[in-house]
Design goal:
The protein has about 325 residues and is an alpha+beta fold. It contains 13 helices and twelve strands. It has a seven-stranded antiparallel beta sheet. Strands 2-5-10-7-8 form a five-stranded antiparallel beta sheet, with no helix packed on it. Helix 4 packs antiparallel against helix 5 and helix 10 runs antiparallel to helix 11.
């Protein structure tokens, strides 16, 4: 390995010197597949060379709705999880290489180039025997909710990052990652403090949103320069509090204290959507929250009706467009 490709000193032995973080250390393919599947998701796993070549290890620690992993298969393997669905995955090789196919895009990862995989992308991965990497798993709902909060409105489409990730060339990401790793190793008790944990989660997510291109990058940059007028914020706040009620454009204009034309132009200029589209996005988000709730007893139809959706076909289409899965799939996974 060249000096250029060598990992930074703080990453060279990260997680390896903490036996309590070891999840699996095995040359049994079935055991490796099972343990890795529990940490991420069930998947198809194929050895591409002799089983004698396999010796895998996985270390990990949780950080709220995020988790950091270090994985080396030690053999030539193919991993096919289909779509990640519930989480984003950041892969940062410390050594070796892999071929990561996201939809029609194939990224050749190395010590200089990582990859970010979004939940709705069709994923296939081939790891070479020398591939040793850090992997950051980020809960989809957590990341998308934080992005929505920064934007000031619900997401209209699933959040999707550019795949190739120059993680070694982004100082802000590099230092944020180092900060988290040092806290975990040198002050692990602090991770049990809720306020500290939330700040650390947001640090990594905000850094990723600001440093890596995605389909909302332009809006985030624009919203940072121009604040929406008060009448737009007033309607957003009202919709957030009354999304379960019957609301019309004229009612919202009256609440805002402006004309209907001014209300629509304000939303389109500062939110790139209309007030009724904003209402629909909020309602879709509330339906998803209901379906994912641990104590949920509502069916898909009941949840949709609760939040004002009367046409199940259009509701299901809008939900799938926003979240990349049918509402019935969300409910099935929540009940699994």
């Amino acid at each position: 390995m060249s000096r250029k490709d060598a990992p930074p000193p703080f990453l060279a032995g990260v997680l390896l010197d903490q036996p309590d973080l070891l999840v699996v250390d095995s040359d049994d393919a079935d055991e490796v597949k099972d343990k890795v599947g529990q940490s991420f998701k069930p998947h198809q796993f194929e050895l591409l060379r002799s089983p004698e070549d396999l010796h895998s290890r996985l270390h990990q620690f949780a950080l709220g709705k995020l988790s950091l992993h270090r994985l080396k298969y030690g053999g030539e393997v193919s991993v096919d999880p289909d779509k990640l669905e519930d989480f984003f995955l950041v892969q940062m090789p410390l050594a070796g290489s892999a071929e990561i196919s996201c939809d029609s895009d194939t990224i050749l990862t190395s010590a200089q180039t990582g990859v970010i995989i979004s939940p709705t992308q069709r994923l296939r991965m081939r790891y070479h025997p020398d591939c040793d990497q850090l992997m950051l798993r980020i809960d989809r709902a957590e990341l998308e909710q934080l992005c929505s909060r920064y934007l000031g409105h619900p997401l209209k489409q699933p959040l999707t990052f550019s795949n190739a990730f120059d993680w070694r060339g982004l100082p802000a990401w590099h230092y944020a990652l180092e900060y988290i790793i040092r806290i975990q190793k040198e002050a692990p008790e602090s991770l049990h403090e809720r306020l500290i944990l939330q700040q650390l989660e947001e640090l990594l997510i905000a850094t990723l949103l600001s440093q890596q291109p995605h389909n909302y990058s332009d809006q985030l940059a624009q919203d940072g320069r121009a604040l929406a007028p008060r009448h737009v914020k007033r309607v957003e706040e009202y919709i957030d509090a009354h999304a379960h009620e019957t609301l019309t454009p004229s009612q919202l204009a009256e609440i805002a204290g402006v004309s209907l034309r001014t209300l629509y132009s304000g939303f389109h200029e500062f939110r790139q959507t209309g007030p009724m589209e904003y209402l629909r996005s909020v309602r879709l988000q509330r339906v998803r929250e209901n379906l994912l709730a641990p104590d949920n007893t509502l069916s898909v139809t009941e949840a949709a009706m609760k939040w004002g959706f009367s046409h199940m076909g259009r509701f299901s289409q809008a939900y799938q467009q926003l979240y990349g899965e049918k509402p019935s799939e969300t409910l099935r996974k929540a009940q699994a």
